[in-house]
Amino acid sequence: MLRFSRFHVTPGGVMSILVPVAALVGSMVALSVGTSFAKSLFAAVGAEGTTALRVGLAALMLVLVWRPWRLRLTRRDGTALLRYGAVLGMMNLLFYLSLRTIPLGLAIAIEFSGPLALALSASRRIVDFLWIGCAVLGLSLLLPVSGLSTGLDPMGVACALGAALCWALYIVFGQRVGHLHGGRAVAVGMSVAALVVMPFGIASAGAALLDPAILAFGLGVAALSSALPYTLEMVALKRLPKQSFGVLLSLEPAIGSLAGLAVLGERLSPTEWLAIACIVIASVGNTVSTHRNRVVLPATPA
């Protein structure tokens, strides 16, 4: 917590804020850069194979770290974890399928509509309609439903919207297992996700998934886009107020767009940047203005 005197902030207080902020920003950067590198695997194993590599190797790392067999589960908890893992797997698969035809930043922005809609669904105040309007405007600039859209591939957009729905369900199901040990629950959920996506990956890429070079690259992608972001997010969650966490997380579509530009050379039009700005404003506005029953989005849902 910041310790204010009348005219200055102590160095310790500054560091107590800078460290978790840097951790959360680092988490989003690692996730976006890792996903950008993952997209370069599409030519070798396809989007489905890339998803299988990323989720499968991430599950293996999480199992080795957290040893989830120590988790004691009731039947109800086990069912909830199965649902949690299933939507996590489908969210990853649909998101990577969307990246075949639309830029990373725009896919993240569209995917953000799921948890944002979930957060706004609990709102009842007049000011919240402003954030809803911003979100709708942003999506209308991207979705092929009006003359305002930028002409994105309809199938890519549909996959991103499917990932958005899965992200909202991921939050709902995640809350139902929130009483369990966090690391072990995530390890179980990611393992279930791997079982969900692996058949798609095997059908798409086959034996190419076992190529040593591809496995090594996939391991790096899994570490950069899953293990590292999750670790950094845990640092941020423990030290940042929920409102600050939500505001910073709202920058993820913009960070994803910059990563796509830097790693993949994906250039966005002014209209597409405006759409991202509208969605970011809607997310920030909802986070700042809502103090009760607010959904705090995880930075690394995948």
Note the topology:
Layout: H1 11-39, H2 42-66, H3 75-98, H4 104-120, H5 126-140, H6 154-176, H7 182-205, H8 212-239, H9 242-249, H10 252-264, H11 270-289
Key structural traits:
75% helix, disordered N terminus, 302 residues, 0% strand, mainly alpha
Could you explain the architecture of this structure?
The chain has 302 residues and is an all-alpha fold. The chain has one domain. It has eleven helices and no strands. It has helices at 11-39, 42-66, 75-98, 104-120, 126-140, 154-176, 182-205, 212-239, 242-249, 252-264, 270-289. α1 packs antiparallel against α8, α4 (104-120) packs across α6 (154-176) and α4 (104-120) packs parallel to α11 (270-289). The longest helix is centred in the N-terminal third of the chain and has 29 residues, at 11-39. The chain is globular. 51% of the residues are buried.
Distance, first to last CA: 30 Å
Major β-sheet, in short? none
Radius of gyration: 19 Å
Number of domains: 1
Give the total of beta strands: 0
Content of β-strand: under 5%
**Would you identify the regions where 5 or more consecutive residues have pLDDT less than 50?**
1-9, 292-296
Measured as a percent range, the helix fraction is: over 70%
Instruction: Indicate the overall shape.
Output: globular
Query: Could you tell me the mean pLDDT?
Result: 86
Structure, briefly:
With 302 residues, the chain is mostly helical.
